[in-house]
């Protein structure tokens, strides 16, 4: 009976689907365990072998936990809104919902392209997903709840006294009773103080404008990353090296009215929460740096000859007497107000230039020094001396106050800036306020061993004393106060795109109103084209039916807007991270029509026990998810403060690209070994045309592209064309993609699963090498032969030998430990060792092979199910108890001693380990082989170390 993976795998995948083998229950006597993968964006390119790595790891773990008696929730869905589908729609004229559906379910798109479909690809690999709970973020029955959460955020404010989000009605009650003077809230800066009588006298619109300054999601004019090429605003984590991550388009900074989320309200809780979760230190550090907590002072500098003031946040108020100049971010509101006529042209030219650089680029680039003098001067709060005010792009508008008091003697960037513009109008000599410190070559940035000098009342103090005293004096003169600051800025929550969640918002007198929850979802309308309108409005500006009728409570034709009972709807859509910021909760109760999840389901599952996904989401999805979870906890909806207890970041599987070499200026390709000194251009070739010996199929290559049809080839002496090889990121553009479908068709899904786990530690990047697949396939065939020969099942009821039990229990111990430690690659090695040992022991004992099938099951579930069934069982192997490790089978009772004569080993003898030296000597001396070696002589000395050596001397 031969091992036929295709037949076996199709059989068991059908069985699992029909029997809903992996359906989790929302109430169970078993303990719960929730294992989650970061769900994929379903692109038309489908899966390559790098994508399933994390899914296979989580599946191994999920199956293991079922064997341990847990009720496991292991769901899967699709993050199906986003830019790629919309870009594809713009290029091909297809509806994003159509291409998204085909990408998931498979089929033929409008261009006649055959799409495998994510679902079919995932099913083929044999994952134990509870598909009954599948979610798609672009389905109205899902995004109605995203819209509902948005409404909850809009109707909430952050009370710093209670340290949590509260309903906006509680804030209104305070305003009605006592005004806002004593309100301790996270809000916009510089809100005017009003009394209760003033509040009650305000019009409804005036009250709404004030409340927008407190709401957790609010409309404000903000500096954003505008990407003209994509026609939308991007989040910081969507920009790489100054261009959009998607498409590589330039990004500029500009001001726009946007919806924003007050994530900054949760900065301290997001920091503190990192202490309570089992995540890698590198991810935690990324979030700590992104949140960027710093303690210092807020200092006010008056601008000379103006009524304006410059507010500066500094972590070093002790250095205030060292202020040599000030720097504002180019986007700072004050720049236009204080710049002198003489400096206006230079300043405006500089602002235009810096608008093309992203914030990330500006933060990372410490070498480029640029700036412009505004011509204005600020006044030192203590000395009243004039301080020149510059602008420079190393200062960011969104960090702190967007202004820096530059102390070159204590800061490297300020020092470099001062020296670069040294001698120019508006740049003063660097002031040194550190005793016994030479700053002729560099700034002194350390806080240690500081003694303040040339600083009036701060002279002789150290950093801590100086900081405390400086803050006290600033507060005394009304020009500063102690403050904790965070780098974390409120998250822009608008996209000028079509393919995203519509906001449940309409506008009355230009002010946002929420659509009542019972009328959700507000479904994305049909549009003729997905580009912005001719007058620059987002694509929803093209919608013919996109207005809200407040009497009928439904969406109606846009041309019916009368601003009496029918009002315009929001034209922006939500960003890609909206739907992914709460999706793990929807899996808990995926078909609930009235709530995003029931209280009972949330209380049972609580949060995710294990989350597996990429580290690239550290400061995007993982931060936003924690923010939304904390908000929902505050409002009594989420049961826990943190969404993900344990996080594992899988490494990347890299592709091994193939290169052909074209002689420059010709259509002749030279084999790698024949290049020599010739000038060649390396060109990616599709890896499907190259065999495991790096030989190119020349005919296939010529047929690949029209311009290669008449190409000539300089081959090796053996008549082969050898390609070059290089490990790179696996991608379609590098033609190094290997699809899991091909591997499954040729070797089976169990081979793919085992091989991906065998490649190396889960969290490390590793190159794919198809040549290694055959070895894993060979292992599965060898495993099969323990159970079957050509005539059928050969498993017997023989009593297992001591060696059989030792091999099995060694494997039980190793596999259980490895899975708990996520060391999956070493488990696969242990399986191979075990099967080799059992084969050499000629073991076919049921007492050994039944538990072995269970051990293999998390990794290679199809073959394990088949073996279990052939052994006579009628139920799935998936929930059979995991074998129990028994130490006694690994305890050695005997030792094989080498017996040496004058240091040379002549034979071995197996003896019980509990024998004394005298007993060992007696047995050895009576052994015929000893007598033969001695040939009648008596040894001078018999050296015996129990458990180690036997040596007869002389």
TrEMBL record:
**PROSITE patterns in the record, alphabetically?**
AA_TRNA_LIGASE_I
What does the record give under GO molecular function?
aminoacyl-tRNA deacylase activity; ATP binding; leucine-tRNA ligase activity
GO annotation, cellular component aspect: cytosol
**Which InterPro entries does the UniProt record give?**
aa-tRNA-synth_I_CS, aa-tRNA-synth_Ia, Leu-tRNA-ligase, Leu_tRNA-synth_edit, M/V/L/I-tRNA-synth_anticd-bd, Rossmann-like_a/b/a_fold, tRNAsynth_Ia_anticodon-bd, Val/Leu/Ile-tRNA-synth_edit
SUPFAM superfamilies according to UniProt = Anticodon-binding domain of a subclass of class I aminoacyl-tRNA synthetases, Nucleotidylyl transferase, ValRS/IleRS/LeuRS editing domain
Domain spans labelled Methionyl/Valyl/Leucyl/Isoleucyl-tRNA synthetase anticodon-binding: 805-917
- Short sequence motif named 'KMSKS' region, residue ranges: 729-733
Q: What is its main location?
A: cytoplasm
Compartments (UniProt record): Cytoplasm
UniProtKB keywords: Aminoacyl-tRNA synthetase, ATP-binding, Cytoplasm, Ligase, Nucleotide-binding, Protein biosynthesis
Coiled-coil intervals: none
Biological process terms from the Gene Ontology for this record are: leucyl-tRNA aminoacylation
Protein name per Swiss-Prot or TrEMBL: Leucine--tRNA ligase
Q: Which organism is it from?
A: Flavobacterium phragmitis
The organism's taxonomic lineage, starting at the top: Bacteria, Pseudomonadati, Bacteroidota, Flavobacteriia, Flavobacteriales
Q: Tell me what gene encodes this.
A: leuS
């Amino acid at each position: 009976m031969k091992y036929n993976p295709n037949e076996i795998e199709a059989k068991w995948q059908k069985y699992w689907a029909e029997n809903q083998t992996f359906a989790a229950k929302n109430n169970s006597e078993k303990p719960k365990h929730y294992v989650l993968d970061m769900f994929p964006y379903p692109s038309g390119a489908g899966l390559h072998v790098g994508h399933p790595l994390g899914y296979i790891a989580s599946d191994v773990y999920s199956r293991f936990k079922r064997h341990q008696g847990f009720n496991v929730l292991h769901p899967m869905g699709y993050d199906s809104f986003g830019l790629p589908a919309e870009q594809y729609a713009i290029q091909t004229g297809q509806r994003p919902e159509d291409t998204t559906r085909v990408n998931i379910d498979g089929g033929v798109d409008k261009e006649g392209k055959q799409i495998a479909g994510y679902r079919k690809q995932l099913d083929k690999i044999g994952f134990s997903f509870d598909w009954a709970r599948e979610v798609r973020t672009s389905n109205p029955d899902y995004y109605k709840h995203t819209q509902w959460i948005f409404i909850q955020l809009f109707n909430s404010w952050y009370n710093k006294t209670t340290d949590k989000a509260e309903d906006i009605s509680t804030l209104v009650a305070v305003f009605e009773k006592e005004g806002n003077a004593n309100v301790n809230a996270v809000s916009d800066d510089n809100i005017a103080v009003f009394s209760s009588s003033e509040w009650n006298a305000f019009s409804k619109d005036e009250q709404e404008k004030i409340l927008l300054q407190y709401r957790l999601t609010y409309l404000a004019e903000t500096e954003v990353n505008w990407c003209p090429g994509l026609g939308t605003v991007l989040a910081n984590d969507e920009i790489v090296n100054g261009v959009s991550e998607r498409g590589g388009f330039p990004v500029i900074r500009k001001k726009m009215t946007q919806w924003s989320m007050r994530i900054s309200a949760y900065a301290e809780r997001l920091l503190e929460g990192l202490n309570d979760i089992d995540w890698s230190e590198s991810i935690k550090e990324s979030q700590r740096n992104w949140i960027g907590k710093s303690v210092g002072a807020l200092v006010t500098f008056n601008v000379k000859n103006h009524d304006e003031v410059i507010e500066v946040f500094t972590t070093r108020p002790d250095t205030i007497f060292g202020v040599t100049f000030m720097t504002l971010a180019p986007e700072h509101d004050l720049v236009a107000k204080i710049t002198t006529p003489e400096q206006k042209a230079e300043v405006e030219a500089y602002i235009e230039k810096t608008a093309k650089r992203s914030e990330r680029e500006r933060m990372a680039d410490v070498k480029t020094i640029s700036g412009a003098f505004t011509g204005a001067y600020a006044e030192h709060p203590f000395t009243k001396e004039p301080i020149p005010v510059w602008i420079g792009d190393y200062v960011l508008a969104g960090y702190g106050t967007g202004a820096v008091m530059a102390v070159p003697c204590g800061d490297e960037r300020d020092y470099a800036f001062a020296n670069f513009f040294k001698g120019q109008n508006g740049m003063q000599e660097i002031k040194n306020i550190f005793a016994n410190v030479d700053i002729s070559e560099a700034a002194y940035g350390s806080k240690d061993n500081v003694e303040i000098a040339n600083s009036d009342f701060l002279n002789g103090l150290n950093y801590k004393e100086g900081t405390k005293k400086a803050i006290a004096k600033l507060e005394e003169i009304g020009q500063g106060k102690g403050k904790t600051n965070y780098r974390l800025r409120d998250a822009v929550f608008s996209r000028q795109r079509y393919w995203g969640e519509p906001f449940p918002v309409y506008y009355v007198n230009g002010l946002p109103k929420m659509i009542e929850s019972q009328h959700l979802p507000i479904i994305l309308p049909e549009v003729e084209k997905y580009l912005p309108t001719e007058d620059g409005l987002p694509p929803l500006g093209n919608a013919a039916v996109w207005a809200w009728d407040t009497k009928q409570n439904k969406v109606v034709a846009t041309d019916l807007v009368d601003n009496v009972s029918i009002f315009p709807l929001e034209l922006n859509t939500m960003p890609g991270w909206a739907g992914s910021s709460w999706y793990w909760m929807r899996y808990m109760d995926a078909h609930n029509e009235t709530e995003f999840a029931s209280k009972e389901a949330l209380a049972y599952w609580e949060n995710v026990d294990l989350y597996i996904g990429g580290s690239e989401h550290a400061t995007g999805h993982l931060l936003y998810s924690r923010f939304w979870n904390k908000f929902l906890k505050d409002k009594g909806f989420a049961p826990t403060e943190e969404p993900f207890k344990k996080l594992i970041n899988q490494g990347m599987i890299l592709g091994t690209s193939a290169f052909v070499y074209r002689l420059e200026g010709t259509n002749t390709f030279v084999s790698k070994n024949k290049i020599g000194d010739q000038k060649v251009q390396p060109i990616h070739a599709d890896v499907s045309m190259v065999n495991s010996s790096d030989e190119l199929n020349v005919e296939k290559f010529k047929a690949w592209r029209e311009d290669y049809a008449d190409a000539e080839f300089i081959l090796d002496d053996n008549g082969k064309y050898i390609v070059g090889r290089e490990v790179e990121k696996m991608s379609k553009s590098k033609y190094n993609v290997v699809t899991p479908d091909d591997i499954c068709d040729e070797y089976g899904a169990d081979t793919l699963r085992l091989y991906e786990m065998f490649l190396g530690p889960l969290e490390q990047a590793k190159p794919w090498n198809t040549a290694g697949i055959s070895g894993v396939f060979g292992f599965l065939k060898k495993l099969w032969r323990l159970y079957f020969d050509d005539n059928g099942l050969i498993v017997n009821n023989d009593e297992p030998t001591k060696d059989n039990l030792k091999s099995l229990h060694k494997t039980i111990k190793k596999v259980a430990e490895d899975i708990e430690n996520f060391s999956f690659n070493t488990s696969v090695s242990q399986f191979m060792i075990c099967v080799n040992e059992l084969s050499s022991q000629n073991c076919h004992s049921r007492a050994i092979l039944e538990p072995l099938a269970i051990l293999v099951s998390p990794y290679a579930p199809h073959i394990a199910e088949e073996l279990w069934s052939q052994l006579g069982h009628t139920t799935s192997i998936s929930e059979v108890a995991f074998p129990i490790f028994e130490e006694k089978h690994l305890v050695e009772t005997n030792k094989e001693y080498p017996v040496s004569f004058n240091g040379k080993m002549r034979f071995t003898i197996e003896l019980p380990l509990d024998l004394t030296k005298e007993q060992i000597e007696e047995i050895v001396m009576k052994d015929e082989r000893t007598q033969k070696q001695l040939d009648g002589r008596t040894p001078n000395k018999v050296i015996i170390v129990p458990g180690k050596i036997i040596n007869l001397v002389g």
